[in-house]
Amino acid sequence: MKFPVMFLLLAALALPAQAKIVTRAVTYEHDGVPLKGWLAYDEQAAAAGARPGVLVVHEWWGLEGFARERAEAVAALGYVAFAIDMYGAGVTADHPGRAGELAGQFYGKPLMAARARAGLDTLLATGLVDGERVGCIGFCFGGAVAQALAYSGAPLAGIVSFHGSLLPASAEAAQRNRARFLICHGAADKFISKENLDGFIRSLDDGGFDYQFISYAGGLHAFMNPGSDAVRERHGLDIAYHPVAARRAWEHMRVFLSEIFAR
User: Fold this and answer.
1) Contact (Cβ atoms closer than 8 angstroms) between residue 156 and residue 134
2) Are 185 and 156 in contact (CB under 8 A)?
3) Taking a C-beta distance cutoff of 8 angstroms, is the pair 146, 57 a contact?
4) What domains lie within the chain, and their CATH numbers?
5) Inter-residue contact 204 to 212 (CB < 8 Å)
6) Residue 215 and residue 195: Cα distance in Å, rounded?
7) Across the beta sheet with 129-139, what order do the strands follow?
8) Residue of 212, 200, 194 lying closest to 252 (CA atoms)
9) Bridge-partner residues for 84, per DSSP?
10) Which residue from 4, 14, 109, 133 could staple onto 52, CB 3.0 to 4.6 Å apart?
11) Cβ 178 vs Cβ 145: under 8 Å
């Protein structure tokens, strides 16, 4: 069957424009430490005005390909994403021992929230972001960073923790917090003890947090990252990629972000 040329032209014009994701490295610093993050946004969406912004916080390996790819996936949703650097420009780990050393310098210390806040300030300084609509997502170590940043009183509408370490909220943190929480947890995660999990949930309840806790059957630690299986084979860690859980958690995040950024 043949269609008139005008019909084909009109049909083509009716199709949605292909998003063009702009990416670039952004250098910044915190307390004298040079840092290098990864900014991503939809050029067409950004041209229409300030957009909601989303910080993306890497796993304990450092700012590598997975976090940058997730930032670009967030940008494809129409947001301005910034994958922050917690360790220092070019500093990453390829062994669990080294990753533990790098991540360990932040746990239980104000440095965790302060370093993340430097990334938040850098995102806000781009001029691309609506400062009243900003969120943070993090993976593993990054999930803990997202929690710590919220507990510090940073101006976040919400956070998403994917298979993150769970930091119980103190009474003071609950008073400072402004964010809603979405916690995406692997039901089979061996890295999180029942005692830790129960204490975390109890602290959110005691603090009056607006939170959602979703547990994904069969999900081990690092279930979002397709590279987890290779790491498991190489280092013997009890982690694994779980594509069903990953898809569901990402969709839950998408709905959550649309809710917290709604006018």
Assistant:
1) yes
2) no
3) yes
4) 38-260 (3.40.50.1820)
5) no
6) 16
7) 21-30, 33-42, 80-84, 51-57, 129-139, 158-162, 180-186, 211-216
8) 212
9) 57
10) 133
11) no
Question: What is the model's pTM?
Answer: 0.93
Residue 12 has a pLDDT of 41
Q: Dig out the tokens for 262 from the structure.
A: 């709604």
Closest CA to 154 of 125, 183, 203, 114: 114
Q: In whole angstroms, what is the distance from residue 250 CA to residue 184 CA?
A: 9
Q: Does residue 5 contact residue 90 with C-beta atoms inside 8 Å?
A: no
- CA distance linking residue 68 with residue 5, whole number of Å: 42
Cα separation, 16 vs 38, whole angstroms: 27
Counting every residue written for the chain, the total comes to 263
CA-atom Rg of the chain in angstroms? 19
Q: Tokens at residue 10, please?
A: 């009109």
Cross-strand pairs, 138: 57, 161
CB 112 within 8 A of CB 144: yes
Check if the beta carbon of residue 76 is closer than 8 Å to that of residue 36: no
Which sign, positive or negative, has the C-alpha torsion 135, 143, 188, 173?
Answer: negative
**pLDDT attached to residue 19:** 72
Mapping DSSP to helix (H, G, I), strand (E, B) and coil, where does residue 167 land? coil
- DSSP annotation of 220 reads -
Reply yes or no on whether the pLDDT at 7 is more than 70.
no
Query: Where do the DSSP E strands lie in the chain?
Result: 21-30, 33-42, 51-57, 80-84, 129-139, 158-162, 180-186, 211-216
C-alpha distances in angstroms, 10 versus 14, 15, 16, 44?
6, 9, 12, 21
pLDDT band for 17, please (50, 70, 90 cuts): low
